[in-house]
């Protein structure tokens, strides 16, 4: 089974749907409720509820082969004008949510001495985009965690990588103008906007056994 967070919208939904169509057993986790029986409603920053999900998987002796952490939120705003509760929401979802899911679901892979974790960051980190400092801080934390966690679980044959997309057409871009998006794309090595399908393709590549030697890497889509 592959666990996917943020599975009810945006990139998470695209990845969930892609894998499900390929008859891969997937379990989605989403803060918002879904009509899909394969998606459980749970906030990734809720450590206790995540533990209950893991307990049920362990009780049913479910073999977890991979964890894909896509759940994330953003608020395009200057740090000095970002409300405290918004800062907490971004850090709790993006950084703590990623850490919590890795802490809770990785032991299910350790039992099998094999696993695959894919976290999600953003190209906004290396570009240090103005007006996204809180979002960038949360995702920079994810990148640092990914690199270090990869070393901590290497002995269990578990690889950990991070995909950092450029601007992708999802709900996260609702507050970003076309002009702002164009400026970001112009700072990439490849000056073009990529689709959700591109990210799904990259996820499938990282899930493939042929890439078992790749771990601790941050893959910036579009290049920086």
Q: What do these coordinates show?
A:
- The protein is of the alpha/beta class.
- The chain has a single domain (2-220), classed as Rossmann fold, CATH 3.40.50.720.
- The chain has 7 helices and 7 strands, in the order E-H-E-E-H-E-H-E-H-H-E-H-H-E.
- The chain has helices at 10-21, 47-59, 84-110, 124-127, 133-152, 178-186, 196-207, and strands at 2-5, 26-30, 39-41, 66-69, 115-120, 158-164, 218-220.
- It has a 7-stranded parallel sheet, with helices on both faces.
- Helix 3 links the parallel strand 4 and strand 5.
- Helix 1 (10-21) packs across helix 7 (196-207), helix 2 (47-59) packs parallel to helix 3 and helix 3 packs parallel to helix 5.
- The protein is globular, with a radius of gyration of 17 Å.
- The chain starts with a strand and ends with a strand.
Summarize the structure.
This protein has 224 residues and is of the alpha/beta class. The chain has seven helices and seven strands; from the N terminus they run E-H-E-E-H-E-H-E-H-H-E-H-H-E.
The biggest beta sheet is recorded as: 7 strands, parallel
> What is the beta-strand fraction?
5-15%
Over the alpha carbons, how many angstroms does the gyration radius reach?
17 Å
The name CATH uses for the topology is Rossmann fold
